[in-house]
């Protein structure tokens, strides 16, 4: 039997000491893992402060203090990638069509880091309303736009274009709309300047109906490089 | 002058054809080949879809517009087969026939694709909400839960072993 110096009682066997350490470590990590696993939360939802207040008047947000002015539209070019640094999004874009009911199709759910753009519509940076959509989660957990609801006004969205340029958008508003009364014109309607919509699921979830609406980010072109 | 006039007429006809073709862009056209979008600029991406082959493999042919052949992959439900191709940037405006052949029956189906230089915009906006989530972020994470249970099992085994040693007087 060996006495470890400095311990009053002493850890008399190295095997015992190792086992005690393993036991304590396993207990702590087990508790932490279970707490963390059970605590997987619903995706963040936008607050009222991020809403479109004042944008619906028709005049556009150009007169608002602190609003970055728009820039001239870019020529059409399909997008390849979307980046939203403030919520750590960096994902390739695939082309999307429409479903049989006329709603926007979605990217394959299995790839959690893939977003899509409506390729029969406006390309991001061009004059008009470009539409990007991605999953908030899939069967395995959070997906590309999980954090979209946490985006704030003034945040930057960058879109890499196939012509080698980058279209830079600034967020005007983040809204959540119920699926039962979806404002098609506001979200998809034409625009006189280059705008971008980024859409994912949101608005509460229930086992029966799934997500009850969409989080929609409104942004306009404020730069390019 | 005459030549210019002819070209202008051709362009006008192309735009008109595109406008006409854009209307039924997303219809099923009676079990034919659904081409979406029905009107595209050179360099644009096109999705073709059909339910006519009943879930089997489908070979598509977009060589008319210079995009070669493609394969259409059946979806999870085995109903629709979907494939994608890109119109070459050098494609000339016009209407092109895209064909698909069912792997099993050899049945041949066709759909039209209009290539236009002036993008025909704004006729077809999406409608309604988008199905971009299933709630997978909400439940407990199964992998993490299993790891946690396993770690607690290890802790329990270790604790039992130590108590045994202590009961036998080995002390800790």
UniProtKB/TrEMBL annotation, chain A:
SUPFAM superfamilies per the UniProt record, alphabetical: Sortase
InterPro entries registered for this protein in UniProt: Sortase (IPR005754), Sortase_dom-sf (IPR023365), Sortase_F (IPR042001)
Keyword DNA-binding: no
Any Pfam family hit: Sortase
Keyword Signal annotated: yes
Highest taxon, organism lineage: Bacteria
Keywords of the record: Hydrolase, Signal
Pro residues composition-biased segments: 70-79
Region (Disordered): 40-83
Signal peptide (UniProt feature, chain positions): 1-17
Name by which UniProt lists this protein: Class F sortase
Organism: Streptomyces indiaensis
UniProtKB/TrEMBL annotation, chain B:
Keywords: Signal
Superkingdom field: Bacteria
Secretion signal span: 1-27
Name under which the protein is recorded: MYXO-CTERM domain-containing protein
């Amino acid at each position: 039997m060996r006495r470890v110096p400095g311990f009053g009682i002493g850890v008399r066997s190295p095997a015992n000491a190792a086992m005690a350490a393993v036991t304590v470590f396993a207990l702590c990590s087990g508790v932490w893992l279970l707490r963390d696993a059970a605590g997987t939360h619903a995706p963040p939802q936008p607050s009222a402060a991020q809403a479109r207040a004042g944008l619906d008047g028709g005049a556009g947000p150009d007169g608002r203090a602190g609003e970055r002015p728009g820039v001239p539209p870019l020529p059409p070019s399909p997008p390849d990638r979307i980046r939203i640094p403030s919520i750590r999004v960096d994902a390739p874009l695939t082309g999307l069509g429409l479903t049989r009911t006329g709603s926007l199709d979605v990217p394959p759910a299995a790839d959690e880091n893939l977003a899509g753009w409506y390729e029969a519509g406006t390309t991001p940076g061009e004059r008009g309303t470009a539409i990007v959509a991605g999953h908030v989660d899939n069967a395995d957990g959070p997906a590309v736009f999980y954090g979209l609801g946490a985006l704030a006004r003034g945040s930057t969205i960058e879109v890499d274009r196939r012509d080698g340029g980058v279209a830079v958008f600034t967020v005007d508003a983040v809204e959540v709309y119920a699926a039962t009364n979806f404002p098609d014109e506001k979200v998809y309607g034409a625009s006189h300047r280059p705008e971008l919509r980024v859409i994912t699921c949101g608005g509460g979830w229930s086992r029966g109906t799934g997500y009850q609406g969409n989080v929609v980010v409104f942004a306009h072109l404020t730069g390019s490089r | 002058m005459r030549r210019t006039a002819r070209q202008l007429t051709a362009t006008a006809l192309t735009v008109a054809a595109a406008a006409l073709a854009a209307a039924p862009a997303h219809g099923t056209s009676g079990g034919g080949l659904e081409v979406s979008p029905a009107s595209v600029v050179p360099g644009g991406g096109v999705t073709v879809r059909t339910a006519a082959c009943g879930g089997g493999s489908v070979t598509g042919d977009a060589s008319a517009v210079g995009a070669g052949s493609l394969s259409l992959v059946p979806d999870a439900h085995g109903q629709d087969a979907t494939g994608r191709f890109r119109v070459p940037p050098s494609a000339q405006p016009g209407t092109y026939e895209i064909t698909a052949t069912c792997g099993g029956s050899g049945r041949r189906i066709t759909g039209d694709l209009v290539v236009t230089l002036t993008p025909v915009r704004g006729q077809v906006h999406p409608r309604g909400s988008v199905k971009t989530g299933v709630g997978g972020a909400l439940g407990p994470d199964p992998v993490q839960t299993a790891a946690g249970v396993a770690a607690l099992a290890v802790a329990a085994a270790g604790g039992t072993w130590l108590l045994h040693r202590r009961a036998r007087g080995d002390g800790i």
